[in-house]
Design a protein that fits this description.
Strand content: under 5%
Shape: rod-shaped
InterPro entries: Znf_C2H2_type
Radius of gyration: 16 Å
Helix content: 55-70%
Largest sheet: none
Organism: Candidatus Nitrososphaera evergladensis SR1
Protein name: C2H2-type domain-containing protein
Length: 52
């Protein structure tokens, strides 16, 4: 039972890391950035004509 909790915790941590990685990408061209703010700035400048 204790081992199962450890596995669930590790899985939750891994999913959280994956979610944070996805946030650092441009929504349109999927280019990666170091920060979420950099991705948003890129999207506003390069893809200003694209509406989601």
């Amino acid at each position: 039972m204790f081992g199962f909790g450890i596995i669930l915790t590790a899985l939750a941590d891994r999913l959280a890391q994956r979610r944070n990685k996805e946030r650092k990408r441009c929504d349109i061209c999927r280019q990666r950035f170091d920060t979420y703010e950099a991705a948003e700035e890129h999207r506003r400048k390069v893809h200003a004509d694209v509406m989601i």
